[in-house]
Design goal:
plastid; 6-stranded mixed β-sheet; alpha+beta; 748 residues; 14-stranded antiparallel β-sheet; metal ion binding; nucleotide-binding
């Protein structure tokens, strides 16, 4: 407890999260109760009773100190007394508690301990958690100085949950010894969860006073990787279990060698290890202000002892007495919290910490380009390119006929002839696809003109007469399961004339298909009236634990003069809450090759509202070069985030038939007087015939970034050999984890 003893009682807030306020020194609370007692006032009576009970807790603490030979001037005891007084002052509102002193409580405790009347009724119920082989059962035996629990250096000794009971100096101790967890891995996740759920059911009716989480001091280093285990404990037991948890570091006499080959300072090594453990616990809760008490334990019978035969640590501390004192102080504070109705005790069941979206994340999502709902139309810049090429001569019709070779005929060609033949096929394919796009664009324009000339009533009657038949979609590929071999009645989807597309959502890794699917996805796009379009997309997913829903609704009005006005509503579930976003965009085509867009959004989550505004401008230079620049802000209460980006895209010569392109982007984000600059590159191209490659790389001013390379090919299957490296790496990692687990069991 080097960190705990280095701070003063009036400024420390690290002992327990149960009480974090401060006050002055104590006096006899019975005198305060007598001075402020008013029989005719019910509130004052309740205050006096509570003060009397707090005084009893204080007296019991002094009696325990006398029994265990601890000094009243101990820094840990001073902190407990300080917080007992503080809790009473805050909850009961007693201003005259500032004059309180503890001399009266000490005198009463000494008298009661000397006479043995009344009998001290104090017990500790302690839950023991930790990985297998860290020394949980061995510590229980060391505390009682006798073999109460079985231990084994080569295999897990505790296979079932059991209570180990005993008494030390008249204090009843009950340890709940549990099976050890396995090291964090995907394979051990299910077994660890099973153990935690069994412990949760065991302690549900009688929660423990204290939780001890064990870890070996000599196995904690910069490569400590048991954060998934801590996160799983938080999910199963809830955040509140860490509020009464003491970190127990076994093998407390270990002092490893430093880089120079000499042993490093014991104090610095303990501080480093406990700080690393606390860092991962704070991430698992998450609560950066939580600091758990730490106690070092050494169960080796050959460890150093003092003149009284007590095991001591390298720093000279008697670990057993300190261990018991820390447990007593934690229980005393827990009793005071229960009495004064403070929150922070051990509450079973997961406590969901409300997730609050960050302004930079919302701003980045808002600045992304959002397309307006348009029916049977391509992108505006694609239309411009096709219209510019409409007057040109159709090259495809001018090509001479070509003879398609068979596979045997193709194999007889020379290498240069094969290349020329494939190049000719690619050239003809590009021209043919371009011709198809032009014809489709021409049909859309003609249909739009014809719809404007048709009378509305005649058009409606014609549409009512048409009744296209439902189309059966292809069967969906489902993962392996224990379903019946005859699946005719399942996984069928129909597309009817009502313009609603309904599809099931399947878990690709799932095995349970009692219902047939895990969710439903629905999509529709309709034309409400002339130049007014709407689209609705929604997905609902549900499993045995979670339920989620996502929905996007949008409507747009396209003015014939070039403006487009749109409004939308997005709904997304987040835990037990819902996120609602209302957004509106306006596009102004002020020039032939320039489009300006402005938008606003309002996001509601819980009792907070986020308002965002943005301005975006898109400019086309020729047929291949495109510039997009945007800027915006997101505001919530008194916090504001600003951001903007600039992107330049160079398309291939065959666009829109071939989507070859390269994009360079720069971004800036400012939040809380901190500026983050970033840059990125995106590229899609065909390095060779039959292969497509996509490269995405980005880096920001905080030296954070990523590189993503995707390769797809239907001919060069040899690129699949890259997966061999991932498989080998996974096998080696699994073997390394198993070896480490075996070493832990042998050393423990």
């Amino acid at each position: 407890m080097a960190q705990l003893e280095s701070s003063s009682p009036t400024s420390d807030t690290s002992f327990s999260s149960n009480c974090n306020q401060e006050t002055g020194s104590p006096q006899s609370l019975e005198q305060v109760a007598a001075d402020s007692y008013q029989p005719n006032h019910g509130v004052e009576v309740k205050k006096a009773n509570s003060l009397t009970k707090i005084e009893d807790i204080r007296i019991n603490l002094f009696r325990l100190l006398l029994r265990f030979g601890q000094s009243h001037d101990n820094l840990l005891v001073a902190k407990v007394l300080h917080r007992l007084h503080l809790a009473a002052a805050i909850r009961l509102g007693e201003s005259n508690l500032k004059r309180v002193k503890v001399d009266g409580a000490r005198t009463v405790a000494a008298e009661q301990e000397a006479s043995g009347i009344p009998e001290l009724n104090f017990s500790l119920r302690i839950l023991v958690l930790g990985k297998t082989g860290v020394g949980k059962s061995a510590t229980i035996n060391s505390v009682f100085d006798q073999t109460k629990a079985l231990t084994d250096a080569f295999r897990p000794a505790t296979k079932h949950i059991k209570e180990v009971m005993g008494s030390i100096n008249g204090v009843k101790l009950t340890f709940i010894d549990t099976p050890g967890f396995l090291p964090s891995s995907t394979i051990n996740l299910r077994r660890n969860r099973k153990i935690m759920l069994s412990v949760w059911r065991f302690i549900r009716k009688s929660p423990p006073d204290i939780v001890l989480f064990f870890e070996r001091l000599d196995l904690i280093n910069t490569g400590y990787c048991d954060f998934p285990l801590l996160k799983l404990m938080t999910e199963v037991f809830g955040n509140a279990i860490w509020f009464n948890t003491i970190l127990v570091m076994t093998h407390g006499s270990s002092t490893p060698e430093g880089p120079t080959g000499y042993p490093i300072s014991y104090e610095s090594y303990v501080t480093q290890c406990t700080g690393l453990m606390q860092h991962y616990i704070n991430q698992a809760v998450p609560n950066s202000k939580l600091e758990n008490p730490v106690v070092l334990v050494e169960n080796n019978p050959h460890c150093k002892k003092n003149f009284m035969g007590e095991s001591i640590l390298p720093n000279g501390q008697v670990w057993k007495s300190h261990f018991l004192l820390l447990c007593i102080c934690t229980k005393v504070l827990g009793d005071a919290n229960t009495l004064l109705e403070f929150e922070g005790g051990i509450e079973l069941g997961p406590l969901i910490t409300p997730w609050v979206p960050s302004l930079p994340h919302l701003l980045s999502s808002f600045l992304k380009h959002r397309s307006s709902p348009r029916l049977s139309e391509s992108e505006p810049d694609v239309d411009e390119i096709l219209l510019s090429d409409a007057d040109e001569e159709d090259d495809y019709d001018q090509l001479p006929p070509i003879r398609i070779l068979t596979k045997s005929q193709f194999e007889k060609l020379t290498k240069s002839q094969k290349k020329d033949y494939l190049d000719e096929l690619d050239y003809r394919e590009t021209l043919y696809l371009k011709k198809q796009l032009k014809e489709e664009s021409r049909r859309q324009r003609e249909r739009k003109l014809s719809e404007e000339e048709i009378v509305g009533e005649d058009n409606d009657s014609d549409q009512q007469q048409a009744s296209p038949e439902a189309v059966l979609l292809p069967d969906m590929a489902v993962p392996p399961s224990f379903d019946s071999d005859c699946t005719i009645h399942r996984y069928r989807c129909l597309v009817t004339s009502d313009q609603w597309l309904v599809r099931p959502v399947l878990d690709p890794q799932g095995w349970d298909h009692d219902v047939g699917f895990d969710g439903v996805n629905m999509e529709t796009a309709i034309e409400i009236r002339k130049n007014v379009h709407a689209s609705i997309t929604g997905q609902m997913s549900k499993d045995k634990q979670d339920f989620s829903i996502q929905s996007e609704c949008a409507a747009a009005y396209a003015d014939p003069r070039g403006q487009t006005y749109s409004v939308g509503l997005d709904v997304q579930s987040s835990g037990k809450g819902m996120i609602y976003t209302v957004h509106s965009n306006t596009k102004l085509k002020n020039l032939k090759q320039n489009v300006t867009e402005c938008g606003v959004s309002l996001t509601s989550f819980g009792n907070k509202y986020y308002v965002g505004t943005k301005l975006e401008d898109t400019m086309l230079v020729g047929k291949q070069l495109k510039f997009v620049v945007n800027a915006g802000q997101m505001r919530c209460s008194e916090q504001v985030a600003y951001g903007g980006s600039l992107e330049a895209t160079l398309r291939g010569g065959d666009y829109p038939v071939r989507d070859d392109r390269i994009s360079l982007s720069m971004s800036a984000l400012s939040f809380k007087k901190e500026m983050v600059l970033g840059g990125g590159i995106q590229s899609e191209f065909r390095p060779i015939r039959g292969m497509k490659m996509a490269v995405n790389a980005n880096l920001n001013s905080q030296n954070m970034g990523q590189v993503n390379i995707k390769i797809s090919s239907s001919e060069h299957i040899e690129i699949a050999l890259i997966a061999v490296f991932s498989i080998i790496k996974a096998i080696l990692h699994k073997k390394r984890t198993e070896n480490k687990s075996r070493e832990v069991l042998e050393m423990g």
